Amino acid sequence: MRIYTTEVQDINSFYRLESLKEVYGIIWMFVPILTLVLGITISVLVIVWLEREISAGIQQRIGPEYAGPLGLLQALADGTKLLFKENILPARGNTRLFSIGPSIAVISILLGFSVIPFSSRLILADLNIGIFLWIAISSIAPIGLLMSGYGSNNKYSFLGGLRAAAQSISYEIPLTLCVLSISLLSNSSSTVDIVEAQSKYGFWGWNLWRQPIGFIVFLISSLAECERLPFDLPEAEEELVAGYQTEYSGIKFGLFYVASYLNLLLSSLFITVLYLGGWNISIPYVFVPELFEINKMNGIFGTTIGIFITLAKTYLFLFISIATRWTLPRLRMDQLLNLGWKFLLPISLGNLLLTTSFQLLSL
């Protein structure tokens, strides 16, 4: 049997082409993930700058202004400084738990961004159980904080880790009940379906008007999940030095810092998706009929408009969260637990029962 040289060359070129297609396919698979990570990183830098500027305005002082124009590069400078600082390990602590804790806290929050729809066609993973996947993944973060506190071999750190676990459990249940009410109202647990269910009636179709009690409970619970003032008991400096962060330095301390802002951004995005109509502009048709047609646009322009609307609503709630931090005093630990178990849990459970009753009557 004779095989000509040209045939061998054709076969080799075919296999090269197929292998190149496979390589391109693998690279293209990572492009959306890297794009999302880049966008999240930029958003965190913007949130840090916004918090410093808003807090400076509330306290009537000058905020960051020297590092870059308007102090925009101050957060980047702080991150670079933390990157080059020495990582100190506690002499008698559990080194493995101490090192793994910050990574678990960050990764569990980052995975939640995969089910966020930034526009009608811009979502990393449109799952049928999207919102419940977020709740399941986010409940892993306190384990990382508890590991960090235990691995530090420090009583203040351990108390901070215990507080983080207790606080997360206390506020995770009301938050889950509010999400379940939204899921019943939309007849789906997919984040895309929830947004589309709100788009039928424009501005008045938002779940904010259909679930006002659930919205307030969700907002308070999400602030407590983010451990923001007035709920920052796990790292209360007057009582626990810095809580579970006490023994950390360098980039590991920076990971905790990034995790808190990532969690704040993720919570604001879920408030936008669940209660504010997501990427829909939702202007009443009676007032501005031309803008109402933006919701029906497709392609790059429609996607860009959707991203802009989603981020505008998200940053509105980021402003509310930042202003709350610099306005309200810190609660005591007993007050925090009483609020979660004695008030928010019964209210969210009653809201769920009320929603279920209305859904059954409407059948």
Task: Please supply descriptive tags for the structure shown above.
14 helices; 363 residues; mainly alpha
Short note summarizing the structure:
With 363 residues, the protein is mostly helical. The protein is built from 14 helices and no strands.
| General shape | globular
Overall pLDDT score: 83
Radius of gyration: 24 Å
How far is it from the N-terminal to the C-terminal residue, by CA? 74 Å
Uncertain runs with pLDDT below 50, 5 residues or more? none
Describe the sheet with the most strands: none
Number of contiguous helices: 14
Strand-pairing-aware structural class: mainly alpha
Specify the oligomeric state. single chain
Estimate the helix proportion, in percent.
55-70%
Q: Got a strand count?
A: 0
Order of helices and strands: HHHHHHHHHHHHHH
Report the portion of residues in β strands: under 5%
Structure explained in plain terms:
The mean pLDDT is 83. The relative contact order is 0.12. Helices cover 69% and strands 0% of the residues. It is built from 14 helices and no strands. The protein has 363 residues and is mainly alpha-helical. α1 crosses α11 and α5 packs antiparallel against α6.
List the helices and strands and how they pair.
Layout: H1 5-58, H2 74-84, H3 95-110, H4 130-138, H5 141-151, H6 155-186, H7 191-198, H8 207-210, H9 212-225, H10 237-240, H11 250-275, H12 289-292, H13 299-325, H14 333-361
Helix pairs in contact: 1-11, 1-13, 2-11, 3-5, 3-11, 5-6, 6-9, 6-14, 9-11, 9-14, 11-13
